[in-house]
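Extended Data, panel c. Modelled sequence:
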Amino acid sequence: MSITRRKFGYLALNCDTRTADTGGMKQRRENNRDMCAELLTVRWTDGDGRTRSEAATLEDISATGACLQLEHSILPETQVSLHYPKGKYQGKVKYCTYQDIGYLLGMAFDDGYRWSKTDFEPSHLLELPVKKS
């Protein structure tokens, strides 16, 4: 799901039923991902040792990870923190691939960090039905 600003201040919502990272992560998911849209902050230390910070759009989230859209690439295996209004999630970049409108980044949360709606509920959240195998 993505939200784009249109002429006269209206927002358009793209409700594609695929999650944002369908091509990026090859392993099978243990947790269902919920599609969402929320502007959050990502922080990391780059290869030169500089602390970086960037606004990112949260595209989907599960108990153990998230997919974000951002302007700059972050190398896989980089430690990142995803900041929400009342806290943060720490994790590691699993992939970061260029798309037409920026980079799509998948992160796996570190042990001790699990997402739940009671901690943080994105403003725009679409809970997808659990697929049964």
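Residues 2-120 form a domain with the Thrombin, subunit H fold (CATH 2.40.10.220). This feature is highlighted in the accompanying rendering.
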